[in-house]
Amino acid sequence: MIVPVSYYLVLSAILFGLGVVAFVFKRNVITIFMSIELMLNAVNLAFVAFARAHNQLDGLVFVFFVIVVAAAEAAVGLAIVIMLARNRESLNVERVNLLKF
Amino acid sequence: MNLPLIVFFVFALLAVAGAVMVILAREPIHSALALVLVMISLAILYLLLGAEFIAAVQIIVYAGAIMVLFVFVIMLLNMGVEERTNFSKLAYVGVVGGFALLFEIAHWLFHSAAGAAVANGPAPAVAFSTVELSQLLFKSYLFPFEATSILILIAILGALVLARKEE
Questions:
Q1: Mind telling me how many Å the CA of B109 is from chain A's nearest CA?
Q2: Nearest to A94 among B51, B69, B85 (CB)
Q3: Which of A47, A55, B58, B142 has its CA 20 to 30 A from that of B77?
C-alpha cells in the first residue's frame, strides 16, 4: 500500500497551523518571516499532494511560482529587516509602533 | 507497515518536530536551523510523492538560498535572544483559528464523500516526468514564467534600494 494523499494533506494542515501559531506568537521580525516561509512550505506540500492525487502536472508548476514568490519576498523582507534594525536598534515587533493607533 | 509508509512517518514527524522547534527556540538562529530541517524533510516527502525535480528545487532554492539569506541576516544583525513580552490578544485568536482550520480539514477528509474520494485513493507509483513538467512550464505557463522574471528583477531592485546606506 502506498501512502494515501490524505496523510500528506493532514501533515500540510499541521505545518500550516504551526506556522500560524509561530506567526502570532513570535516577537522577532526575522522569526515571523520564517513562519511565513513555513506556511508557504505547507501549502507547497498540499499542491504536490493534490497534483499527485489528480495526476496533473499543473500543481508542480504552481509550486515553482510559490517558491519564486517566497524568494522575492525573502529578499525584500530581509532588506526591510536590515533597515528596521538600523533605525530602531531592535528586531522586536512591539517596538515598531509608529503607525499604531 | 511497508517502507513508503515508514519513510513518510519518519520525515513527517521530523517536519512537525522542526516546526515546533521554530516556535519554541528563543535564539533566531535555532529557529532558522529548525526550519532547514523542516524543508529537508519536505524535500524527502516530495521524492516520496514522485516529484523529483521539485525536491531538488526545494533543497537548492529553499534550504540552500533562502535559508542562507536568513542565517546571513541573523548573524549580520546579531540581535541576540528574543525578548518575551506579553502576548497580544491576536495570538489566542490565531491559535484557535489555526487548530480550527486543522480540524476542519481533517473532518473534510475523513467524513465527506468528495474529500474521501480525493484522500483515500492511493497515489500512483510512477514519478512525474521532468520533461513533461518543463514542457508545461515553457508552453502553457510561458507568460507567468516570464512575468516572474520581472518580479525577481523588481525584488532585486527593491532589496538594493531598501538596504543601501543613506549618504
A1: 7
A2: B85
A3: B58
Residue with cell 512575468: B147
The backbone region for B36, taken as left when phi is positive above 0, alpha when psi lies in -120 to 50, beta otherwise, is: alpha
ipTM of the complex: 0.90
Shortest Cα distance, chain A CAs vs residue B131, angstroms:
11
User: Model confidence over A14-57: pLDDT tens digits?
Assistant: 898 889 888 888 888 899 999 999 999 999 999 998 888 888 88
Least confident among A81-90, B48-57, B79-88, B97-106? B79-88
Q: Which of B118, B42, B93 is nearest to A5 (CA)?
A: B118
Domain ranges of chain A: 5-89
User: Crossing angle, helix A5-25 and helix B28-48, to 10 degrees?
Assistant: 170
As a whole number of angstroms, the distance between CA A18 and CA A21 comes to 5
Identify the DSSP state of A36: H
Fill in the amino acid letter for B120: N
| CA distances, A80 to each of A73, B12, B66, B151 (Å) | 10, 33, 15, 17
Amino acid type, B9: F
Cβ contact A7–B144 (<8 Å): no
State how far the Cα of A19 lies from the Cα of A24, in Å rounded to an integer: 9
Please, which pLDDT band fits residue B49 given cuts at 50, 70 and 90? confident
Helices A5-25 and B113-120 meet at what angle, rounded to 10? 100
What CATH fold (topology level) applies to the domain A5-89? Helix Hairpins (1.10.287)
